[in-house]
Amino acid sequence: MTALAQRPANPVVGESVVHESADLHVTGAALYTDDLTGRLTGLLHAWPVGSPHAHARVTSLRTEPALAVPGVVRVLTGADVPGVNDAGVKHDEPLFPTEVMFRGHAVCWVLADSLEAARLGAAAVEVDYEMLPALMTVEEAIAAERFQGARPVMTRGDAAAAMAGAAYVFSGETTMKGQEHFYLETHCSIALVDESGQVFVHASTQHPTETQDIVAHVLGRPAHEVTVQCLRMGGGFGGKEMQPHGFAAIAAIGATVTGRPVRLRLNRALDMTMSGKRHGYHASWQVGFAADGRFVALDATLTADGGWSLDLSEPVLARALCHIDNAYWIPDIVVHGRIAQTNKTSQTAFRGFGGPQGMIVIEDIIGRCAPLLGIDAAQVRERNFYSPGQQTPYGQEVRHADRMPRVWDQLMTSATVDRRTAEIAEFNASHRHTKKALAVTPVKFGISFNFTSYNQAGALVLVYKDGSVLINHGGTEMGQGLHTKMAQVAATALGVPLDVVRVAPTRTDKVPNTSATAASSGADLNGGAVKAACEQIRERLAEFAAKRFGEPVDAVRFEGGTVRAEGSAAPPMTWAELVDAAYYSRVQLSAMGFYRTEGLHWDPVTVHGVPFKYFVYAAAAAEVEVDGFTGASVTRRVDIVFDVGDSLSPMIDLGQIEGAFVQGAGWMTMEELVWDERPGQGQGRLLTSAASTYKLPSLSEMPAVLNVSLLEAATEDGVVYGSKAVGEPPLMLAIAVREAIRDAAAAFGESGASVDLGLPATPEATYWAIEAVRGGVRDGGVTTLRRPT
Amino acid sequence: MTRITVTVDGTRYTDDVEPRTLLVQYLRDRLGKVGTVVGCDTGNCGACTVHLDGRSVKSCQLLAVQTDGHEVTTIEGLANGATLHPMQEAFRDCHALQCGFCTPGMIMQAVDLVTENPHPTEAEVREGLEGNLCRCTGYHNIVKAVQQGAGAMSGGQS
Ligand code: FES
Ligand code: FES
Q: Does A28 sit within 8 Å of B35, measured CB to CB?
């Protein structure tokens, strides 16, 4: 085992501990960005003037009427930008646009003494527009060939030649809608200027360094004049990876031009109208199967609905391509990727980051083709699992491929899938208007940022004279428990109790050049850096202690807050005593740690390389009951088996699995983004712009039974203390719920029908799927191009 | 402006407020009680839940003037000094929170539920907290916490 993965005796990692901010959360004392407003004097509030059109050119802008509104102090326009008028990293996101690209796109921002004055001021600003034609759907954009960014192609072998030899060839299309993050805390930034003219921004951001970079380039200043701090976020889910930068930049411009602190907080309607969401995808595919249900070839084109600007669409697409195989060996394959430009919000990162979209395509193919093959879908899945030694289509060996069948078998047993499948068949035979189904789906998810450079992290660990320890690292806390895990890593590495360690809020002036807290990699990367920093300090202290004990350095042990030397008769010292003595002997008690993931390389043009350190394996079995009159479904029971390696913090990890699963099930069964797509006055309006119209999972949609177990004996060599990532992969386990709904819908018709089911599989979509099978549709919208005669 | 006198977390306040001021605005902006947060603005998420004379209300759906002469308890007034309320303790120990943004509202709603029904079944907990949304936890641990908290509130073993 590597030194990185090796745990010492009695480690603090692996213990179930409460969230490090739990006391603050249950008492209401935890602060989020907007909670700071009351602590600032002279605060200004910002409000946007949003475009009422989906696509238009701004022909004139009159801000004077706003200045006549009492309390309005300033209207920020493009003329106030001292640096670059751009809020993105692709230079396609003007902060103050002259061509508005979606309904709600901010043309300018009003600053006022009160929020109300800012809103009244924004209503008073006069803007003239010249309407331009808008494209609202990915299908329209495909027809108009309006694409943006790279068009990568992932290829292995010769799909066309292989397809020619396949027993079965099918073709079809798969579409899925996007998803609103609905982090409970909306976007918020507060900017201030300090006595030396430096800019300080409190931001609800998953990527403080990039927020800093963009604020700096908008202000035309070097990065060292801008500090970004994130205390914590009330949820992020990817929605605060790229999206906060422009809001932070507006607040920063406001603070520099007025000299007063500026608060920009979106209310829920603004947040939903203005901020990017999960990409909807369109896929067209042709697939070849052997007679036994094994994949022979796949030829697919994935088109992302990118919204108006590129944002993170390219890396999201790369991850979609890298997950279209899910857990399956597809010998010959070609997948084309492209990004449609539509007049909607700039779609962005969302938990899974394209992985779910890619995976859903192959699972949809299996769900619809299995009945046409005459083979049970679960068997098609199992037969196609990777074998050890095989490679993904992008050329990476599937490390630990044997874990997939291990997870699968454990789940089949723990969920008693065979027995329950038989019971369900009996139930369905005797119930005409209600049908049940049980579906099992796997997940294989690659861990690391596809873009190799991002796989680095820094940490600054400070040990004070009294022995207390303060950790600074580059990761942000959005509820996922990263800070808790980092405290456990530090306590383990230093051999001290957990309460000796505290984690400081994330700040760019403590740890520079950090990566986004994203890609499920927060604990892997920052944990590596925290451990590296702690070990430097421990080594210095070990050397010092060895002299005091008169024993060799490698005899010194740090454990549970005491330090001793093996074989020494001298009494152990407490950690605090040792630190105190070391200070007076001028031993350095702080250290900067750095970590980079080894062995990665990636070519985004050829879509080839080793982008991932390892894969996470998991599977879910979901049982649903569907009502034939309404299409409404109830999830009765879900069983999950998940490979987290050796968990750093089991209670935290279980919480992540449960939460991600429910979030995924929300996307796939009830959350529906609806834009007004018809040309005319309403075009481009997000019709589901509040929790009253956008249906989020609530307690009543929770599965009646949810059993989660972790795979045993799953140490991941080469990751901090043998653990694995957990943030994103469980979201995709919810595919099992949609597949179960599909099977239940099929049970309303004659056996063996293929079912085309919408995503989300809302009651309405399910109802129409049931109606189709009742009406005798048996092909599930799939065209059979060849089958054995 | 309308003058109101209201007791919040045990302290009496007399203030002039605009009649249209929402209770949550009054709590956050005037009294600095930022433990109560706003999630949705539309009465759907329950993040802003507080107690009005001991019963739960969504403070984004109530005007400050409606609390004139009444008693409001927020999450900040629930603990007894340094001793957590049993429901707070249960949420902490059951890991019934991740980002924590829904937590104050969830706890206030849970306390109200248990006040009305000291021994709620799992189904009753689900129904009783239906109006509070959590985007992080998937609710599983929240149900566990409410049942544990209910046990502790009725003097049983937690
Ligand atoms: S903010 Fe009051 S219910 Fe959501
Ligand atoms: S813990 Fe984040 S919303 Fe509930």
A: yes
